[in-house]
Amino acid sequence: MSDLQIKKSSTTYDVVIVGSGAGGGMAGYVLANAGIKVLMLEAGVYFDPQKDSQQLKFSWESPRRGAGTTRPFGDFDAAYGGWQLEGEPYTTKDKTEFQWFRSRMLGGKTNHWGRISLRMGPHDFKAKDGLTDDWPITYDDVKPYYDKVDRLIGIYGTKENLENEPDGIFMAPPKPRLNELFIKKGAQKAGVNVIAGRGAVLTEALPGNKDRSPCFYCGQCGRSCKIYGDFSASSCLVIPAVKTGNLKVITNAMVREVLTNKEGIATGVSYINKEDMQEYQVNAKTVILGASAAESARILLNSRSAAHPGGLANSSGVVGRYLHDSTGSGASGFLPQLLDRKRYNEDGAGSVHIYSPWWLDNKKLDFPRGYHIEYGGGMHMPSYGFGRNIQDMNGRVPGRDGKMKEAGGYGVSLKDDYRRFYGTQFGMAGRGTAIARYDNYCEIDPQVVDKYGIPVLRFHYKWAAEEIKQAKHMQETFQEIMHNMGAIYNGPEGADTNYGLEAPGKIIHEVGTVRMGNDPKKSALNKWCQAHDCKNLFVVDAAPFVQQGDKNATWTILALSMRTAEFILQERKKLNV
Amino acid sequence: MNRRDSLKALGLTTLSAGLILEACKTDTPHKEEVAAVAPKTEDEAGRQAYEIERDKKLHAETFFTPAEMLTITVLGDIIIPKDEKSGSASDARVPEFIEFIVKDIPEHQTPMRGGLRWLDLQCLNRYGKIFTDSTKQQQFELLDMIAYPDKAKPEMAQGVAFFNRMRDLTASGFFTTKMGFHDVGYVGNAPNKWIGVPPDVLKQYGMENNI
């Protein structure tokens, strides 16, 4: 390291964007198309789904047959990274738990996400129960941007006129699979509304777009799409933005901090080039963070200066606070009616075909906020784990001769069971609103640095009664639906597992760490996601969320980032930034 | 992009797209295609350098002894034997898969090695010979004590746990090959247009009015 030096660039960009996912990608796309000179820094490698996707590989093309050994969601999954990155630790405090998923690649986590694209509703921006803070904006403020995102990216769904589940500009949704028809029937009998899924997958040609093709139904959105049939920030935003000639991407650029001058104005960022391990500084008139909710908070907290002693944009002390992930709890079973079912290609789309938006009134329940349910099942590609625990299935239904079999076994009869049970399984997963709390947070660990010498995050997160009671309700609902379906399933998760409630972070919807608000004492950003303390600094990932609904975060990240980028364009015209 | 361009982007011509569909219908899978043991260079696009290195390293290592591999092969073929529809576990190279997967997922190593040893000790005590040297009848007598979890005796619980794992790994290894796909009737992973459950299937389950 004797040749270590800080390399300062003489160029000043109009804008530097940290991160290339949904937030950074959208901001880069809008600004580059408006003629602004943008530099985008991505901590991971270049990734173009057209070349790099593992789409259409068969299980035997993986020596581990698709197991999630090096990629947590399977060997063909698009995400580079995972719950732990070598040399980039994070810690937890007070024996609490938080799982932090990071994708180090162009497009970030959007390359592998489920493409479930739900708008937050009026009551998500302004809650009726008074339990949490209101957003400084309403659904009506965001609606025009949701509409524009729908048109730009493409989304399928159905118009339902539900009060808190606003309709978008939809393409036709994929029809339900057979198992999903059983789910729908069972759920409806339980009083649970089931509607078509809403997914960022092109089921029709996207008007005016020649680079993307409609879905050909391999069901593999998680691998990212070679023909750009689904939304990834890489394929749909960053790569097109590069083609304008106005956006430059530097990959393997791990940002250490935002640089500010004596007046506290942002002047650029400092980063490590992971290829040559040298320190670089780049100048920009405007700095936009889209590094992910936790990573953007980390960068701000590590950007300490005389003007910003508690970290940048943090005079309120809220940076890192109000961290919240969606709740998650699931159930699964099989449909004995479907034993020996007819074979056909049922891969379908890689996002959900059906789901249940929240259907109840929390005033009549013992928990304050709702959840939605995602469903799936059918004749998927066999991969690692196929037929696992057959001994829990094959003793529960009669064999071909009508007699009950002893569970487990081996031989010709067992081999036949694998065939008989193929395609009978299904799963359902609740995704609920978790309350944003001051006491759930990430902060800088005072003792630990990563391999680049950057101080790391330390998490402190605890579920409370509100979330645990919600998970209990999910389990009760799942049992009723599965009973109505005529399914075979196990009993509900109980108090010993918090009703199957996943550890915080596991749903990968973490938000809220650099919250918006009108009061600079209680929030870090104003209603344009502009720092109260530093007018040329913006945050465009999920960090600005005040309170997430049960809706997956991506569509709101895209809408807010587009809104912020357009605000920056207006302010530039007025010479304010 | 029109359909032809899309298929080109996928590295497929309309002809080869047809071949993929066709391949799923083939009755006699070629044995050498059953399990690709190591990915070819052209398949490494999008694989991270460390993943390629790691796979190479794992392929170069050997975990099971020849005696252990023999037991795994015998057990695998008892779990999934050849029948009128498809070949046996060893025909689908399941033992080679199990050798790889225990190196890839090391938490399988001790339960597998220890389980094989447990099995041999049971046979030695009962029959005076290790499992693979015992008679077929003795092998089945022993396996019947561990292959049925609900009726197994408590003192055989470790054997049940081992056999459950061995059964799972065998199923994973078999049904993820071309032979296994064909056996189970998976016909996807090919460009198509999903238009919903076929009408005859809807009718079979009385779901015509629920779509």
Automatic annotation (TrEMBL), chain A:
- Gene Ontology molecular-function annotations: flavin adenine dinucleotide binding; oxidoreductase activity, acting on CH-OH group of donors
Keywords on record: FAD, Flavoprotein, Oxidoreductase
Sequence ranges assigned to domain Glucose-methanol-choline oxidoreductase N-terminal in this UniProt record? 86-325
- A Pfam family annotated for this chain is GMC_oxred_N
Its needed co-factors are: FAD
Is Cell division one of the keywords UniProt gives this record? no
Q: Which residues form the Glucose-methanol-choline oxidoreductase C-terminal domain?
A: 449-560
* Family annotation (InterPro entries): FAD/NAD-bd_sf, GMC_OxRdtase_N, GMC_OxRtase_C, P2Ox-like
Q: Which PANTHER family match?
A: PYRANOSE 2-OXIDASE
> What family does the Swiss-Prot or TrEMBL record give for this protein?
Belongs to the GMC oxidoreductase family.
Its protein name is: GMC family oxidoreductase
Q: Which organism is it from?
A: Mucilaginibacter polytrichastri
Taxonomic classification, please?
Bacteria, Pseudomonadati, Bacteroidota, Sphingobacteriia, Sphingobacteriales
TrEMBL record, chain B:
**InterPro entries assigned:** Gluconate_2DH_su3
Q: Which Pfam families match?
A: Gluconate_2-dh3 (PF13618)
Report what the protein is called: Gluconate 2-dehydrogenase subunit 3
What is the organism field in this record?
A: Mucilaginibacter polytrichastri
Q: Taxonomic lineage of this organism?
A: Bacteria, Pseudomonadati, Bacteroidota, Sphingobacteriia, Sphingobacteriales
